[in-house]
Amino acid sequence: MHPSLRSALVTTFTFASAAVAGAQTQAGQSAPAAAAPAVGESAPDFMAMATDSTGKTSHVMLSSLRGKVVVLAFYPLDRSSGCTAELNKFRDEYKTLFGDGVVVYPTSVDSLGSHASWAKEAHFPFAMIADTKSELAKMYASDGGARPYFKRTVFVIGKDGKVAYADTKFGALSADAYDKLAAAIKLAKAN
Question: Catalytic site residue 8?
């Protein structure tokens, strides 16, 4: 194929793909979802608000946590059954699952007030990120799309800021899911 013809076809295809995506968005259909960051890639940096069990809020910026292992755990909704099981497991096995040098940020679409109330009731030892506009969830392909809540996903971000582990279908009731998470954290801490 002649180089100029190939270039024209590539340009036409690229323009047509962008036009279709734009038309889908205008027609109320969502554009194709972004892919989750892959293991080995730099984790998308973000700034978000978090709160702990005392109601104290803080700004969280991923790039400021370099040198620590970060666990970013997206979950659907505060106080729902699977989410309660997951975060209670995080709390009950905090020392053995995470340990020193690990920062844990459960993240949902719920408000800071909802997080603070739940964290206080449940005695969670970690701060929780409120992503009420789903901006962070979209960066990590964890938003629910047409659903008003997040997918259950977990990312382990190494001390170097790269994704060390990604589970895009984390099983809140699966012992195997927590075993894999613990192994990934242990490996990330060693690197």
Answer: no
Q: How far apart are CA 113 and CA 80, in angstroms?
A: 16
- Is CATH 3.40.30.10 what the domain over 47-190 is classified as, yes or no? yes
Q: What is the 3-state secondary structure (H, E, C) of the chain?
A: CCHHHHHHHHHHHHHHHHHHHHHHHHCCCCCCCCCCCCCCCECCCCEEEEECCCCCEEEEEHHHHCCCEEEEEECCCCCCHHHHHHHHHHHHCHHHHCCCCEEEEEEECCCHHHHHHHHHHHCCCCCEEECCCCHHHHHCCCCCCCCCCCCCEEEEECCCCEEEEEECCCCCCCHHHHHHHHHHHHHHHHC
Domain boundaries, the chain: 1-29, 47-190
Contact of 47 with 61, CB cutoff 8 Å: yes
| Burial of 124 (C-beta count, 10 Å sphere; 0-12/13-18/19+) | buried
Task: State pLDDT tens for residues 100-146.
Answer: 999 999 999 999 999 999 999 999 999 999 999 999 999 999 999 88
Q: Which residue out of 83, 97, 127, 164 is catalytically annotated?
A: 83
pTM: 0.82
pLDDT in tens, 18-60: 333 333 434 444 444 579 999 999 999 999 999 999 999 999 9
